[in-house]
Specification:
Elements: E1 8-12, H1 16-28, E2 32-36, H2 42-49, E3 53-56, H3 65-74, E4 83-87, H4 94-100, E5 105-108, H5 113-139
Parallel strand pairs: 1-2, 1-3, 3-4, 4-5
Amino acid sequence: MKSQKRDTVLLLEDNVLNQAMLTRRLSKTGFSVIERENGLNITKVIEETHPDLILLDILLPEVDGLTIASNLKASAETAMIPVIAVTASAMRGDREKALAAGCDAYISKPIDFPLLLSTMQNLLERYRQVKSNLAGFTESKPLK
């Protein structure tokens, strides 16, 4: 039986309790979780860990989540990685700001875990399709 690769989630969450709860639940669901408390050196972390999806708290110390999302989507190396804003910031307009910054989805806290899982699965499936299409495109022979 061939073992299936576990999807890797990069969790950027500064609240230790939220981080532990999400890590535990995601791990039980079959994800490999990498935890970070802030967005410092995020490009290096991504280069080293190759996450399939990023869960991003918007209210982070040092560098806020909107800036992180915007920077990730502006870089060719990280633009395709799905980013879900997971935040307690649920004021009018916050969802729109997160999406405008480049987040692919927005989930407010307290987290509806079935909704989070469904959103993650949908984004991961789309991500895999795009990667597969790009791989086929780059492997195809040029027209003569």
